[in-house]
Specification:
- The protein is α+β, with helices and mostly antiparallel strands.
- The chain has one domain.
- It contains 11 helices and 9 strands.
- The chain is globular and about 60 Å long.
- The chain starts with a helix and ends in a 16-residue tail after the last helix.
- Bound molecules: zinc ion.
- The site of zinc ion has 8 residues, from α4.
Length: 324
């Protein structure tokens, strides 16, 4: 088969998989709720995303499978409308509204423990829904392209899928149970956080989870195969003239979170530090268009290089500064 013909077949398969994933319905994540989830925003459209949009547009990560196989492989950040980004199928309309109402509409108080808990709940729910969707897409795509795709590509594919499946089957259900226990008991002492506000709009918005062990995570995972993986959430919530930044984790992961307990909003390199976490660890970054457009091509590729590496690269402090 000619290469051009093969690429055409892959693109057709991706189109079909994206369509069916878009139509696929999931039950609400709230325990014992039988309603179907809606497409919620993990980052609020009003206030948060609006505050960094220009003509209702922002740059956001390209989550389409085309970005893995397509011609636009190099463009990880693409221009989108604020209605399109940070959507996830997590909760039914009732639960999405009732659970998160305390932190909606500009009411987020970064010193309030319940609010910090809700940011953690939303970030892990988003991660869970995102990985569930990705696993479905990869499984469907694998079945459609296996007959005309090289062994090496299929092998990579399978490994990637296996990692996601492990998270979905092993870690995610445990995190979710812990979260709903805390939610129902309102025992906020089971979470810890280091959260603060900066008195400017950083031009970037993000809701994400990652391993607080960062580059040491792989080594840890090999030695602790059956342990629950430590996880930390990062929420960056810009508003008109300030930005709230929240690092939140389960208290039981305290000893893995040293690096994050120490962060102080007045430290000299705070912007570079946040820039590194946002760009290297987030799968849900949204950026103000004029901030992204002011970077030259080599700065953009340097950022992509850090974004697409599955582990933090050495020299991460040299990630070009995107934040305002
Ligand atoms: Zn529900």
């Amino acid at each position: 088969m000619r290469e051009s013909q093969r690429i055409k077949l892959i693109r057709t398969a991706i189109g079909k998989v994206e369509k069916s994933a878009n139509r696929k319905e999931y039950k609400c994540m709230y325990p014992d709720c039988n309603l179907f989830s809606i497409k919620s925003h993990s980052q609020q459209k009003r206030h948060q995303l609006q505050s960094i949009s220009e003509n209702s547009r922002i740059y956001a990560l390209n989550n389409s499978l085309y970005s893995i196989f397509g011609d636009d492989i190099n463009e990880l950040l693409v221009e989108k409308t604020i209605g399109e980004v940070s959507r996830y199928k997590g909760y039914c309309n009732t639960h999405d509204t009732n659970i998160f109402i305390p932190i909606e509409n500009g009411n987020l108080n970064i010193n309030n423990p319940e609010h910090n808990f809700l940011l953690l709940l939303r970030a892990i729910s988003f991660e869970y829904a995102h990985k569930r969707d990705m696993h479905y897409k990869l499984t469907e795509l694998f079945n459609k392209i296996r007959d005309f795709t090289s062994y090496d590509i299929l092998k990579n594919f399978e490994e990637h899928k296996r990692g996601i499946k492990l998270f979905l089957d092993k870690d995610a259900p445990v995190y979710m149970n812990k979260l709903y226990d805390i939610y129902k008991s309102r025992n906020w002492s089971k979470i810890s956080y280091n959260s603060f506000s900066l008195n400017r709009n950083l031009g970037v918005s993000s809701t994400t989870c990652f391993s607080p062990l960062r580059e040491k995570h792989c080594e840890w995972a090999v030695n602790n195969l059956y342990e629950l993986q430590p996880i930390i959430s990062l929420n960056v919530v810009p508003e008109y003239n300030k930005t709230s930044v929240a690092f939140v984790w389960f208290s039981e992961f305290e000893k893995s979170c040293d690096e994050f307990i120490k962060i102080n909003k007045d430290q000299e390199n705070i912007l570079q530090l946040l820039n590194t976490y946002i760009l290297c660890e987030s799968e849900d970054t949204c950026v103000k268009p004029s901030l992204w457009e002011r970077l030259n091509q080599s700065e953009r590729y340097e950022i992509y290089r850090h974004m697409s590496s599955s582990h933090s690269l050495s020299g991460a402090d040299s990630v070009p500064l995107l934040l305002n």
